[in-house]
Amino acid sequence: MLIRKNTKAFKTILEIVSTCQDRPDRDKLVRLYITKAGHSIDDRINVEGIQGESGLFYEMTYQTVLSNLQSSNHQLCVSDNIPGIYFFHSTSNKIWDEAPFEFDEEIKSEFSSLPELPAVRKKEKTAKFEITGPNQKSESSPAKKDKATASNTKADVGKAAKPVKLQAVPTGAKQPDFDLKHEIHFSNLDRIIFRDSKLDKRGLLEYYNEISDYLLPYLKDRLLWTKRDTDTLKPPIEMTVGTLFRNNEDELPRWIKTQLTGSRQKKNNLQCNDREHLLFYVENGSLQFDHELSKIKHHDTPDYLIIGIDSPEFDITKAIDVALAANEVLEGLQLRSCPKTDGVSGFHIYISLETTSTFDTSFKVAEYICKLIGLKIPDRVSLIGSESHGYGKVTLDYSMNAPDKAIVAPYSLVPGQSTIVATPLLWDEVSKDLRVEEFNHETIFKRLKHSGDPLENLKKRVNADDLLERLETHYSFLF
Questions:
Q1: Res. 171: pLDDT tops 50
Q2: Whole-number Å distance between alpha carbons of 69 and 61
Q3: Considering the chain, what is the average pLDDT of its residues?
């Protein structure tokens, strides 16, 4: 059945395919096939099953699908016999079912706001297909068997069989050697993830493998969030079996640790306590890792208090001035702190807490501190959610000091145009010369080797109850 270009159904499909183009998990949302010239969708070959070149064929086929959707010479069709299979016919050829594709069930939730969503299909078992040379014959499960080859003609009788030269079939790109305890098969290693820096999937895995000793202490035994898209403005999502694997536990290796949480709505959260878990999540689409402020065993008592400083219009120069003012206030309160770039245009200031106080207490303390900073430089800042929240001002954010909130973990990559790392700093480094792009996947290791992790200096923990009492006693009259 033909889907005309001026219909809502066509426009929705074009919107989905265009939006997913730069997503690292697009192969899970849009599954692609190829067909030989003149063949129908009955003879389709799943791109995932092409041995050794699946990543390349997926990229090429995806661009073909997108180009055909935008082309005036191709017509989009949906199969009447196989629900959920879409394909193209060119205006000059109505026989060849070109570039078949299908949508996964997850698009129903991902694109629920769009009208007339396309039909979806459950993922089927992928048959392997070997790319062979011009003089070789190939077989795959979709291919039809040639009955003529099943019998010999009289002319063949008595002829000596010619020796067949065996050729090695590529088995895929060379797997990274990470010396893991559990086997993980890494796919699409040549796919570009960060386009500006040309960092591919292999480079992404290598970064997280090498940074794991510094990153994992901030992820261990905590509920986690993640970003799976290079769009900076998209919020992170909880790392659960549901969000990463659509509740299909059959896709989870038995060694992956989960944690059932929630009093009313039970959620099967994923844990990340070692390199195997970390790299497994990267393989399955995670780009950024966020951590909650408390550990699972002490979920109601945070061990960090965070002051967020968010600069408008991605201009970190304004945030630098506010961060320096915040440091003066914290020093006046005799509070030891550590700033961290958020990887975009602001800072997270860490204060280490004793795990004896509730989130309610730490939230009130963070609000007090933000108000004190606001009194110091009222013309340059506004508090999140306040009436003074104005255009062009730097936002002071204490709202992340609440249960079930998360911030980007130290040394996690932050999706965007470049491979920027959320990096803890020494206060001496917070100056007009600071450039967040200088903290990237290539420079971070030299920095760590030279100066170590500044967050490790936060050895002394603060009692949030005592601090709140001190703030209320000495500063409540100001507000």
A1: no
A2: 12
A3: 85
